[in-house]
Amino acid sequence: MLVYDGDCGFCTSSVRFIERYVPARAEIVAFQYADLGELGTTAERAEHEVLWIDRAGRVSGGAEAVGRLLTAAGGPWRALGVVMRVAPASWAAQAAYRLIARNRHRLPGGTAACALPPAGRPGGHG
Q1: H/E run at residue 60
Q2: Which of 62, 106, 118, 126 has a CA that sits 20 to 30 A from residue 45's CA?
Q3: 109 — alpha (psi -120 to 50), left (phi > 0) or beta?
Q4: Angle formed by the axes of helices 75-84 and 63-73, nearest 10°
Q5: What stretch of H or E contains 59?
């Protein structure tokens, strides 16, 4: 399962790209609609990074989560996902993920609401 921030326009645009182009065999859900306690995580974590929860209930976040999603998709995506999770590429992937996460409100599909704390976003989740 991939868990993302459904209040963030950039995150939602990214998920739509995944749904269209990445043959992910996974449920994709906004954290605002997920039972995070049952999934073994918290809203605080889900507000700050995309999460991947595998069938065994292990939770990965950030670039690791994206790498695991791509690995699970198979085909050429699998190779990219594996590379993203092995050092030193994993270090670069995590640095890129953090840079993107901090600036998601400035990226295509992002809105000013993406930069606000969750309680201050339109819709008031948090």
Answers
A1: strand 59-61
A2: 106
A3: left
A4: 150
A5: strand 59-61
Is residue 123 pLDDT above 70, yes or no?
Answer: no
The helix, strand and coil proportions of the chain, stated in percent and rounded to the nearest 5, come to 55, 10, 35
Give the model confidence (pLDDT) of 60-97 as tens digits. Answer: 999 999 999 999 999 999 999 999 999 999 999 999 99
One-character DSSP codes across 6-54: TT-HHHHHHHHHHHHHS---S-EEEGGGS-HHHHT--HHHHHHS-EEE-
Q: How far is CA 29 from CA 85, 90, 124, in A?
A: 23, 25, 18
Strand partners, 59: 53
How long is the chain? 126
Would the pLDDT of 1 be above 70? yes
Q: Which residue has the tokens 């507000």?
A: 47
- pLDDT value for 24: 84
